Amino acid sequence: MFQAHGYARARSRLRPPSRRAWLPLPGLLAILACLGCGLDLPNEPGEGPGRRAQQLALRPEQELALGEQAYHKVLRESSGHVLPGDDPRVQRVRAIAKRIVRAAGIRPLQREINLHLAGYRFDWEVNVISDRQVNAFCLPGGKIAVYTGILPVAENDDQLATVLSHEIAHALAHHSNERVARQESGGVNVFLDKAFDRRQESEADHIGVFLMTFAGYQPEEAVRFWTNMRRANPGGAGMPEILSDHPSDERRIEDMRAWVPMAVAGKKAFDEGRIAPSAR
């Protein structure tokens, strides 16, 4: 879940009171609502995004079913606040998401990120919920919700693409599936868990910068968006990053500045035909 300081309140609405191993629905939202990460765990070669080791617990059909169940639950609980499809805000968000999803289908980009999508089904659906929460999420299977509270913070379409690319990245990288595996492993260590969460969150930031760039949005706006978030939440900088399940705004801004030139260079190489579009 896209989250910075004030987003913690949104997570509490999706999470049941107790933390426990996965069951069909009670434990479902605890996992799906906690999409987070960091870069301070050892990187090991593997089949996950960026070729890091990644253990998954759910088969593709299970992952899709979990996302659909959770999404329907959120929409039911938000009954009366889900904006109609002809609302300009909904049309705007859906148009941006459509471009990002199209970019996610670019094979060289999938290959670079090491996304494994074969066998997985994404039934993309986008809704906007009228709520002051500064929040958005994308559940497994491509179920996206954006809360209207985040729209004023994202000053333009490029900044809103920052949010949506980040959320879509979580789904493409099977982060919630990975969290199920981690919870089922039975190991609990507060600091390692938070480091794992920060790793996923930073991974979604990284993937997101490339997605938005390949979708035709300006990645420099990702830096500006996080600068806006820092200004909007001046009191949120007090918690040390090691105690948080999300990277600090400062870390995110620093990372974005490093990744933007890479994303721009990758898009330029692709546009110029220097990367074979059908290569696998």
Describe the structure.
50% of the residues lie in helices and 5% in strands. A hairpin with a 3-residue loop joins strand 2 and strand 3. By secondary structure, the protein is mainly α. The model is unreliable at 2-44 and 238-243 (pLDDT under 50). Strands 1-3-2 form a three-stranded mixed beta sheet. The longest helix has 25 residues, at 190-214. The relative contact order is 0.17. It has ten helices and three strands; from the N terminus they run αααααβββααααα. It is globular, with a radius of gyration of 17 Å. It starts with 7 loop residues before the first helix and ends in a 9-residue tail after the last helix.
Tell me the strand percentage band.
Answer: 5-15%
In DSSP terms (H or I, runs of 4 or more residues), the helix count works out at: 10
What summary fits the major beta sheet?
Answer: 3 strands, mixed
The succession of helices and strands, N to C, reads HHHHHEEEHHHHH
Helicity, as a percent range: 40-55%
Mean of residue pLDDT values: 81
Uncertain regions: pLDDT < 50 for 5+ in a row? 2-44, 238-243
Spatial order of the strands forming the largest sheet: 1-3-2
Structural class: mainly alpha
Backbone CA Rg: 17 Å
* Gap between N and C termini: 30 Å
**Strand elements, count:** 3
Shape: globular
SSE layout:
Elements: H1 8-14, H2 28-32, H3 60-77, H4 88-104, H5 107-113, E1 125-129, E2 136-139, E3 143-147, H6 157-172, H7 175-184, H8 190-214, H9 220-232, H10 249-271
Parallel strand pairs: 1-3
Antiparallel strand pairs: 2-3
Helix pairs in contact: 4-6, 6-8, 6-9, 8-10, 9-10
